[in-house]
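Closing statement on the S-adenosylmethionine sub-project.
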Amino acid sequence: MFKLEDSYLHKGKRRELIRTLRNKGIRNEAILEAFNNVPRHFFFDSALLSHAYEDKAFPIGEGQTISQPYTVAFQTELLSINPGDKVLEIGTGSGYQAGILYCLGANVHSIEYNKVLYERTKKFLPKIGVKIKHYHGDGSLGLPNQAPFDKIIVTAGAPVVPKTLLLQLKIGGILVIPVGDRKKQQMLKLTKQTNKQILKESFDNFSFVPLRGDEGWE
Ligand code: SAM
């Protein structure tokens, strides 16, 4: 699937990263395998390349970040992806999370607010064989023309749960979203049991860049 150059060094570092994720509690073997199959260093520019397999977030330009691998794994576990699921990702950023979802067999729709990152990732992902549908715009409003979705993942910190996103979920669908203030957010999993019943589960705190847009911070 991946057309850029991989190496034994990077494969070894990926195995170490997977050990770290296991030690931190990630148990889903398909997700760990996806981390093995998606070379994170492809998503880094040369100045930061040696850091690609550290379990940390790193800058990707435009004041944005590629999320920490543990965060990507944690959110992906909460989503319980089944092959063929129609998934909306809000905050394409580098495209790494989208690559993991694609590797798990999801039909990924991903929306990015920042035009520069949108253009860059739209050109880059096909080069490494990741096929998703890209959109530029305000993902805090979801993607009404493509709804409903089986799963929605928000990869930026929101002040509240946007009601629009719950409306764009199928019955039985799952929304994973970090909600809090600008510095710290609690990870939430919302399962749409019926049109009127939402099951809300709360997890640890994380620290994301802010979700922008109408239902975000501005
Ligand atoms: N998922 C990304 C990855 O794998 O690299 C990391 C995302 S980064 C932590 C958050 C991204 O959300 C940034 O690229 C930012 O521009 C984007 N973003 C912020 N508000 C947004 C919005 N309303 N709609 C779409 N994207 C948004």
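The mean pLDDT is 96. With this model delivered, the sub-project is considered complete and its resources will be redirected to Aim 3.
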